[in-house]
Design a protein that fits this description.
With 534 residues, this protein is of the alpha/beta class. The chain has 18 helices and 23 strands. A nine-stranded mixed sheet has the order 13-12-14-15-23-22-21-18-19, sandwiched between helices. A seven-stranded parallel sheet has the order 5-2-6-1-7-10-11, with helices on both faces. Helix 1 crosses helix 9, helix 4 crosses helix 5 and helix 14 crosses helix 15. It is globular. The structure holds glutamine.
Length: 534
């Protein structure tokens, strides 16, 4: 039995208040005070995982080391905590129902009527506790997706109520995040929406322990007192979360507001040490005081929604800080790039990143972007589909293999330089069936990638079905595009580089998933360093 303590983070009034950032910030502060902590996300939707969701619907699909396709908030947890998450860190209603129904079919509930309470709620509680037990953690922070009052989050809220009742208030607390809007006309901060959303929680049997109020303006003492009185919390448990430009500043504000000490007091835990935030603060200082600006063209087809490239954007932020440079990301829609305008679209950038993706839409523009980077000697990073596009481009224009393609785009291509992986050929289901998670990659010493990583053995995360076709390896190598990263077990190509180029690197994996504040990804750092040279 684990003796972990549980913190639940719920949201009221509206979505997008930043529960993920508040949860991550609190986790980071508790970690810096000597506790082992993780953050878990409960998503009330019925999809088993977001892997089958369109990025326009749900933003980026994040991938854990153990190969789960998860909510992008897990990316924040890792970036703040500098610790990997696992598939246990993300639970969806789809997963919960699937396992309860599987148990029912096996006969585990034989004779019983299977119901939301207790069967669904038991499954939810079990999945919350499993995270703590598996890694023997002191504290688990569980973020509940959606807003209280949503029909689909009711079983989660009920599970929280039960856990609070079962474990007692010093082992299980609820932090409720709401919005205090400022009304221009009356010049006032309004607390009524907060009062209403706390009422919804109370109707469901939960008295929140701490309230975090998102606000554009500093909360007056008056407002704090009013919220405390009407929502039945101590005044010290009313925490201000003022809008900030940089999400990484939130922990610093939360420290000032004493969210960590308030939480520890409620959980009857002592701070084991003073937080050591020097490296974090140094990072923020560099972020806010860049010596230069570097412009990176991000070529993708989901650029209308920046959340679709969340981890890439964050990796740029981390790498920019290391280089003491502001990375200005110029979003270039791959569908808009034509032979006639590629100059105009990408002319002014210092580096080009071709993004991951699926399917034919926008592929022409991505291939043109890779060609432009190669010919104009502009630093280039191709990620997954971006790497595959660089390979296709090189095959067509350097090896002169007319019609070379990926079989994802053209099944009948005469030169399938990118082809479906052998183990993928018999797969029909779409969900969770790609090559997913961390795999080893061995790096050649004489390469740009080695200069970035400074090691020959790395592990990186994947999410793809297609791969470089090794039948063409020698032709590519002879013409100057080398496979410098190889999976040692399977021989799969993981990294390609063009030798005669300032910095041209394509990776079959996703380096962006593992870049954190305290451990910026070496490939992004090197990419930006080289972009600064031109
Ligand atoms: N569509 C490509 C594949 O499945 C690339 C995937 C990606 O970019 N994540 O191999």
């Amino acid at each position: 039995m684990s003796s972990a303590k549980y913190i639940f983070v719920t949201g009221g009034v509206t979505s997008s208040l930043g529960k993920g950032i508040i949860s991550s910030s609190l986790a980071m502060l508790l970690q810096s005070r000597g506790y082992s902590v993780t953050v878990q996300k409960l998503d009330p939707y019925i999809n088993v995982d977001p892997g089958t969701l369109n990025p326009y619907e749900h933003g980026e699909c994040y991938v854990t080391e153990d190969g789960a396709e998860t909510d992008l908030d897990l990316g924040h947890y890792e970036r703040f905590l500098n610790m990997p998450t696992t598939r246990l860190n993300n639970v969806t209603t789809g997963q919960v129902y699937q396992s309860v129904i599987d148990k029912e079919r096996r006969g585990d509930f034989l004779g019983k009527t299977v119901q939301v309470i207790p069967h669904i709620t038991d499954e939810i509680k079990c999945r919350i506790k499993r995270v703590a037990e598996k890694s023997d953690l002191d504290i688990v922070i569980t973020e509940i997706g959606g807003t209280v009052g949503d029909i689909e989050s009711l079983p989660y809220i009920e599970s929280v109520r039960q856990m609070k009742w079962e474990m007692g208030s010093s082992n299980c607390i609820v932090i409720h995040l709401t919005l205090v809007p400022y009304l221009q006309t009356s010049g006032e901060l309004k607390t009524k929406p907060t009062q209403h959303s706390v009422k919804v929680l109370l109707e469901n049997g939960i008295q929140p322990d701490v309230l975090v109020l998102r606000t554009q303006r500093t909360l007056t003492e008056d407002v704090r007192e009013k919220v405390a009185l009407f929502c039945n919390v101590e005044i010290s448990s009313v925490i201000e979360s003022i809008d900030v430009d940089i999400i990484y500043e939130v922990p610093i504000y939360m420290l000032k507001e004493k969210l960590d000490v308030t939480t520890l007091r409620k959980l009857k835990l002592a701070a084991r040490r003073e937080p050591h935030l020097r490296p974090w603060k140094d990072f923020i200082h560099k972020l806010k005081n860049p010596r230069s600006t570097v412009k990176i063209g991000l070529v993708g087809k989901y650029i209308e929604l920046q959340d679709a490239y969340k981890s890439i954007n964050e990796a740029f932020t981390h790498a920019g800080a290391v280089n003491e440079s502001r990375v200005e990301v110029v979003y270039v829609h791959s569908e808009g790039i034509k032979e006639t305008n590629v100059d105009k679209k990408l002319g002014g950038v210092n580096g080009i990143l071709v993004a991951p993706g699926f399917g034919t839409r926008g592929i022409v523009g991505k291939i043109l972007a890779a060609k432009f980077a190669r010919e104009k000697n502009i630093p280039f990073l191709g990620i997954c589909l971006g790497m595959q596009c660089a390979v296709i481009e090189f095959a067509r224009n350097v090896l002169l293999l007319q019609g070379a393609n990926s079989t994802e785009m053209d099944k009948g291509t005469p030169y399938p330089v990118i082809d479906l992986m052998e183990e993928q050929k018999s797969i029909v289901d779409k969900g969770g069936t790609m090559r997913l998670g961390a795999y080893a990659c061995r790096i050649t010493e004489d390469s740009k990638s080695y200069r970035a990583y400074r090691t020959t053995e790395v592990k990186e995360r994947h999410r793809h079905r297609y791969e470089f076709n090794n039948a063409y390896l020698e032709d590519f190598s002879r013409a100057g595009m080398k496979a410098v990263g190889i999976n040692p077990e399977t021989g799969l190509v993981e990294i390609i580089e063009i030798q005669d180029h300032i910095w041209f690197v394509g990776v079959q994996f996703h380096p962006e998933y593992s870049s954190t504040v305290l451990r910026p990804h070496p490939l992004f750092v090197e990419f930006i360093r080289n972009a600064l040279l031109i």
